Every structure is written in structure tokens, then in C-alpha cells.
Amino acid sequence: MVSTMTNHLTLFCLVDGAFPVEIESTKTIGDLKKLIKAEQSPDFDDIVANNLTLWRVSIPDDENDDEQPI
Predict the structure, then answer these.
(1) How far apart are CA 70 and CA 53, in angstroms?
(2) Residues 23-39: tens digit of each pLDDT
(3) In angstroms, what CA-CA distances link 60 with 13, 53, 66?
(4) Which InterPro entries match (predicted)?
């Protein structure tokens, strides 16, 4: 018996508020852009998914830095 496991990633997108999107780890950045556009419908209906600019950031989750702005 052959079993194929697909790893999913949950990413949080920040566009005037945060929202999660779940995508398979084997998908492309283009697929991610399409998913983000779909999640933000109807607000993103006039935006071409390919024109979205994505940034990879790391925001520390340190309880001692509660006073630090993001």
C-alpha cells in the first residue's frame, strides 16, 4: 500500500488586518497569490493575482516585547 502525505502550510497574511490561508507545501508562489486574492474577494476583485507583491517577514513573538510596535 502506497500512502502519499501532503504537508500543508498555514500562513498569515496581513492586508489591513490579518487572515490565515492554508496551502500545500508543494504549491507555487503563483498559487499562493491566487489563494490570497480568492480569500479577499470581493475586496481584491479588481486586482490581478500576479501583481500581488509578497514579503517574507518574521515577527518575533516574545512576551517581553509587548511594548514594541510591529
Answers:
(1) 19
(2) 999 999 999 999 999 99
(3) 16, 22, 10
(4) Crinkler_N
**Which cell numbers hold the place of 68?**
514594541
Cα–Cα separations (whole angstroms), residue 21 to 2, 4, 35: 29, 22, 7
Q: Are 10 and 20 in contact (CB under 8 A)?
A: yes
Q: Which residue has the higher pLDDT, 44 or 59?
A: 44
Residues facing 18 on adjacent strands: 14
| Nearest of 49, 61, 53 to residue 14 by alpha carbon | 53
Output the pTM of the full model: 0.68
